[in-house]
Amino acid sequence: MTEEFLSLSAEETSKYARRFAASLKPGDMVSLCGELGAGKTEFMRGITEFFNCDDQLSSPTFPLLNIYEGSLDGEPVVLHHFDLYRINSLQELEGIGFDEYLSNGYLSVVEWADRFPEYNLLYTVTVTLEYAGSDSRRIVVKRES
User: Fold this and answer.
1) How many Å apart are CA 110 and CA 81, to the nearest integer?
2) What residues make up the domain containing 14?
3) Coil, helix or strand for 35?
4) Which DSSP letter does residue 114 get?
């Protein structure tokens, strides 16, 4: 199933991400794709807001992984946020135990996941942000059935 949304601002992107996050559950693995500046971090910010993560969200380009602890309806939520932008090879990604992180049952969001198509079958949903004008973004959500 594929959904599309046109965002006219960063605020709309974050708002849509909060609505999207309502459909997520532990064990889901989200592939988050798009060019530099397309809004991936803003989308991620909306997800962390939905799960009441108190940590300040930053693009994890330097730390490969940020772990956010939040809650939903009083239940704890652990969210793993990966950024694969600086990973240069499949060997490097495997060397850090990436597949082990993905198999741990936590909710995971992986920016730049499209750089490593070898893992595509593990993702339960793919979100792609594309430029649709200077301030607009097209957000495409594809769920695996």
Assistant:
1) 6
2) 2-143
3) coil
4) G
CATH code of the domain covering residue 72: 3.40.50.300
pLDDT tens, position by position, 80-136: 999 898 888 999 888 888 888 877 778 999 999 999 999 998 899 999 999 998 889
Q: For residues 38 and 40, what is the distance between their CA atoms, to the nearest angstrom?
A: 6
Query: What are the strands of the beta sheet with 125-131, ordered from one edge?
Result: 2-7, 137-143, 125-131, 29-34, 107-111, 75-83, 65-72
Q: Are residues 125 and 2 in contact, defined by beta-carbon separation less than 8 angstroms? A: no
Phi, psi (rounded to 5 degrees) for 89? -150, 160
What DSSP line would sit under 40-96, residue for residue? Answer: HHHHHHHHHHHTT--SPP--TTSSSEEEEEEEETTEEEEEEEEE-TT---HHHHHHT
CA dihedral for 99, 94, 144, 4, sign (positive or negative):
positive
DSSP 3-state percent helix, strand, coil across the chain (nearest 5): 30, 35, 35
The total number of structural domains that make up the chain? 1
pTM: 0.88
